[in-house]
Structures are given as structure tokens and as C-alpha cells.
Amino acid sequence: MGLFFRCMGRIDDILKQRSGGSVVSAVKDFLGAGDEELVDFHTFLTDPQYLALDGIYPFWLEESKHDYADYSSVALTGSLAGGKSSYANMLTCYRLYRWFSQGDLHTYFGILRGSPIYFLYFSVSMKAAERSGFKQLRQMIDNAPWFQKHFPRRKDIQSSIQFGNGFSIEFASGESHAIGLNVVGAILDEANFRNGVGNGTISEYTEVQRLAQQLEDRMRSRFTRDGGKLVSFMCYISSASFASAFIEQKISELDGDPHARVVTAVQYKICPQNYSKKMFEVFCGYQQLSPCVVQSKAHKDTLLRSIGLPRPKAQTFFEKVPVDLQPQFKKNIYLAIQNHCGRSTASKGGFITNYDAVKACYSDSLRRACPLVQDSIVVSDQDDVPLWSVFDERKFVDTDKPHALCLDLSLTGDHASLCCVRFDGFMADGRAEHSEVFNLDLVPPQFPGMLKISKVEDLLYWLADRLNIVVFSSDAFQSAQLRQNVCERLDLPNIRMSLDSSDIPHLLWLSMVVDARIHMQYLERQDTEIREAVHDVAKHRVVKRDGSTDDQFQTCIGAFFLSETVCTQDGDLSSLYDGRINLCGATSIESMMKRLGYEGMSFDRRHGVSRVSGYAEDAPDVGSSRMRDLIAGSASTGSSFTSSDVVAMSQRSRRRGGVWDILNAMDASSD
Fold it and tell me: DSSP string covering 454-522, please?
């Protein structure tokens, strides 16, 4: 008898959970309907008893035939208007159907009875959620026969989707929204955080990324069952025009997970009937190789070799596109790849993609010969310790060779740095060779102290008495007066340089690294900054990663740049300037290059090399045939042929002091 009443109580609990549910369905739950009675995703979408949707794209209908009952994580990526958000909502409805069919959700998830259970829809605001996919999800549930019959939502509440069984779907925008909640699933759509849709800021999106990662970690600890399968559900929707490193990494993780699915939806594949069957091929870009339209089989072979990956993997960076869309690729190949191919042409990525090349430039003998007895010194106005006290001048070698100095100065807070690079002359094949003499970390004092600029100025004069300093430059803001004083006293060109405004010096340094013609010292802080540097290809800048520093790397770049451009000219820039050189911004750097005699290129609005003038097929040492193919491919698309295209493929140049020749792997003319 006691068992009978306990059973009746169990059915009563289920009836209370099922607002509007029938006794038959409650008894069915009580008896334990197994998975074999649940329909597959494809049937759920199309059957009149369930979601009963019409007009689903054939692409998604075919995709729905996969076993989505077995997937606990899904990532959807692709082009605009591909239906990714709609498909994510369909998946959410199917996941609700499977969960609700288990009967007692608290027992199923292992959650304390009576506690509310949540599914989160990430957005910066409810309004933004309504404009993206939240409203559509609510309408799908309202119109679905299965939910109408078994689990109708509460119609008196529009700000969330609430059911009578203690389950609700809420929008979430911050970490505080999920603290202490029983979250069993979530949707993260990047489009909700793009300007014009969600108007989300970087800080807001970073917070959501952190929350999503925490939720996933928590789900794995609470909802993992036998075999490692999760009973929870996460769906990530990647917008090609706003793909973040978080989503890119997440897609990479899910790609090899048997309980996850990654789907790429492209509009011309979803609706092929709307496009021509004639196709052209596009290279979508890889690391430092820029996107371009493939011109020929030889051109494609060149790109495949340049990628440096196994051919099947390298082939994945190419797309065949209907010729109807070719004008869009000629206007802006980056946007076209995002909008039509559904590929992310990330505006930011790691600057160093081949760290082995950097390591090959480190010299143990150069490190042992470093004149510094310690790598850093506090520069304070609270003491009288001279900065040259950290030098052992007996270790200065080749003092008559031209030396370049670059200073990055900060008065408080950030570290400062002073780097010295020596021009060692031209090698047998005519290429310039350079060595890093030292890179001194200038540590700011603790409050209330300030960095004493006069100490730095005295150090520069001390160095000039011992080394052949032919060029000195500093950043644009903190050290203008110091730079003017030093240049006047040492009779040097007054070069104002801002390494935050252009990536040209960085790309020159990188080409020198690839060319193995620079020698550096391994300094832990400098090496970390090199590895963590971020290349913003959209703005043509190299910046520091969030939470990182970059002063030693920047002064290293600046000193090598000055050594390559000025020291190779024996320090004589009389034809170039009238007493002062401004190298703040790509335009001024390009102007300097051209005035030094490098006239073989023209630049586009983004300061990429857009056209090479005076190019002749029979010109000596003009570069490899695959370089010609690459140039021809980029030129024909109308897109920029940036210097980063060539860094990964650069051939050794024989032209003395050829800054742009080396950077672009070609010779304009011989000396």
C-alpha cells in the first residue's frame, strides 16, 4: 500500500510539472519512456505532431538527418543569411523536447527538487536578443504542436520563456546572471555582440566569453554521464565578419569531439539554384598569406607550397565560388570571403607564426658578450645611481661600426626600454647583417618616484663616447625634448618614430628573421613579447596582447629598422631631411623608403603594396616564378599585395641595403 501511494505521489509531481499535460503523458513519463520512443531531429522538424516547420532550406534539412540526439555541443559558422540562428533555435527546441520527455527533469539532471532550471541565451540586452533570435525561438515554441499539447509556455511573460515544469529560457549578458543558477544549456551567437546588432563592447564580450567557458566547465563536472557524454547542451554561432579567437578555438576543440558537431553554412551552397554553375576559385588566406583569386593551376600550386601544410590540409583554405559573386571579390576580397564564403578573415592574429625562425636568430655567443652586467635597472628620481653602472664597457666590441639606438620611454607605470643594434656590414651575397648589442629594461620606480629622464639622456651621451652612434630615435610623446637635445649635441638626424602606427618596421624585421641575417640575444621578457605580439592586419599595426607588454620588442624592432635603413647608408641622410624626420605612420615611412631610392612600388589606402612598377619578365634577380604568380594573382583581383604576403615566401635578395626589395622579395634594379 505504501508503494502505491508513493507511486501516486510521483505521478502527481509530474502532473504539477506538466502545466496543461495529460494524465496519459504523465503515466507515460512515470513508466519511463526510453530514447527509442523519441523521434530523430529530422522527423521532429517536419512532422505535423512536433515542430511542423515549412520552408526549411534543403541544406539544413539534409543536415538535420545527422544524429543530433548524440551531440552535446554544436558550432555553426558560415556566411550571412545562411540560417545559422534559425537552425540553432530548431536545435534548442529539439533539445527541450528530448529533455522534457524524460519526465522528472530534476532527477534527470541531478538537481535539487524544486530548484529552477535554466537555458541561457547570451545577448547584451533583451532588446538585442529580440532583434536577433530570441523572439524567433519564442514563436517556434508557441507554434509547435508538440509544445502546445504537452508544454505550453506562460504567455503572460514575454521577457523570458517559462514553462510549468520549472524550466525557463533567459537572456544573459553578464557573469552575475549565472551565478548560482542551474544552467543546463546555452546559445552564444557572436552577432549579438557586433556593432549594429548588439552594440556590445569588447569588455562585455570578453565577460560573456569567460562566462560561457565557466558554464561549459561546470556542465562537464555536473552533467557528464557514462562514456563522457554530456546531457547538457551548448550551441556556438560564429559570425564570419566578427569571429573571435574564443570561437575559433572552440570550433577547433569541437572538431575532433565525437559528441560535437561543427557546421559551415554558405549561402550559395544553401540555395545553389540561385547561382551560376560556373565557378572560380579563391584562396581564403592563411597566416601571413593574404587572400586572392586563383589565376591558374601554377598559381594555386605556388600557394599550396607556400602554406607549408600537407596538401589535403592546405586544400581546405580554398573555396570554389559562383562567378555571379566575382565582382564582390574584386571590390573587397576580405569582406567577400566573410560574407559569401563564410570564412573568417581575422583582423587580428599572432604576429609570429614560425617561432623556430626567431629561435634560429638567437646567438649564445652574442648573449655572453653582452656588455650589460644586469638586464634591468630602476630609473628613479629618488637616487643618484647612474645608468651606465650596469655596463661593463670592456665588453664593447666593434665600436667603430655604425650603431643604432631606439628608446621607448614612459614616465610612470609602464616599463621603458633602450635597445642598441650594430650594423655588421654586408655579407658576400650583398645582404646587410645586424646584431643586437643590448636591450636595457628601464624599470619605473614605485610611487611617489618618477622616471628621471636626465639619467637616460646622460646614458646616451656616455654611450656615444664609446660607440659609433649614427642614428637615434624615440617614441613620439614622452621623449621629444630628450630626442631634440641628444640629436643636436651628437649631430644626428632628429627621427621621431611611432611603432604603434604602422606594421612596416615589424614586417621588415620579420623578413630579416626569415632571411637569417640578424643576430639577437635571448632575453626572457623580450622573447615573451615577441611571441605574444598581435598583428592587426586591418589597421596594419602590431600591438600587444591584452595583459602583456611590448616595450622591449618595440625598441628591438625600432633599432633593427634604423640599422637597416640608416646605418646601411653610413648614417648619411642629408638628401632625405631638413633636420628632422617624422616616422609616425605608414605614409611617412613609405615616403622615407621612396626617398631612399626604393621607387619600385605604389601603395593603396591601407598602405599595402598595390602595384609594382617597372616590372620586367627578364629582369635579373626579380624573384621566383611562384612570386610572379602570386603578384599576378593579387593584382588581378584589385586587392592589396601587402608585404606580409611575401614574408612567408621571401627569397634572398642580392641588392645592397634593399629594404623594400627584401621585404617584397624582388629587385627593382641592380646597383
Answer: HHHHHHHHHHHTTSEEEEEEE-SSTTHHHHHHHHHHHT--EEEEETTS-SHHHHHHHHHHHTT-EEB--
Q: Residue 11: what pLDDT? A: 46
pLDDT band at residue 591 using 50, 70 and 90 as cut-offs? low
- At residue 112, φ and ψ (nearest 5 deg) are -55, 130
**CA atoms of 264 and 248, how far apart (whole Å):** 13
What is the crossing angle of helices 504-514 and 551-565, to 10°? 80
Under 8 Å between Cβ of 575 and 545: no
Q: Do you find a cis peptide bond into 116, omega within 30 degrees of 0? A: no
| Alpha carbon distance 601, 596 (integer Å) | 13
Model confidence over 490-536: pLDDT tens digits? 988 888 777 887 888 888 898 888 888 999 999 999 999 998 888 77
User: Do residues 268 and 275 touch, judged by C-beta distance below 8 A?
Assistant: yes
Strand (E) or helix (H) holding 236: strand 233-239
Checking if the pLDDT of 440 tops 50, the result is: yes
Counting every residue, how long is the chain? 671
Spatial contact of 74 and 121, defined as CB atoms under 8 Å apart: no
Backbone angles phi, psi at 426, to 5 degrees: -100, 135
Cell triple for 512: 630579416
In angstroms, the CA 165 to CA 496 distance is 68
Burial 77-96 (b: 16+ CB within 10 A, else e): bbbbebbbbbbbbbbbbbbb
CA pair distance 576, 494, nearest whole angstrom = 12
Residue type present at position 480: A
Q: Which three cell numbers stand for residue 521?
A: 640575444
Output the DSSP codes for 15-80: HHHSTT--HHHHHHHHHT--GGGSPPHHHHHH-TTTT------HHHHHHTTS-GGG-SEEEEEEST
Half-sphere exposure of 661 (CA within 13 A, CB side): 27
Q: How far is CA 559 from the centre of its chain?
A: 27
Tell me how far apart the alpha carbons of residues 271 and 12 are, in angstroms, rounded to a whole number.
Answer: 49
Q: Which of 465, 446, 444 is nearest to 391 (CA)?
A: 465
pLDDT digits (tens, 9 = 90+) for 451-504: 788 999 999 999 999 999 999 998 755 578 888 899 899 988 888 777 887 888
pTM over 0.70: no
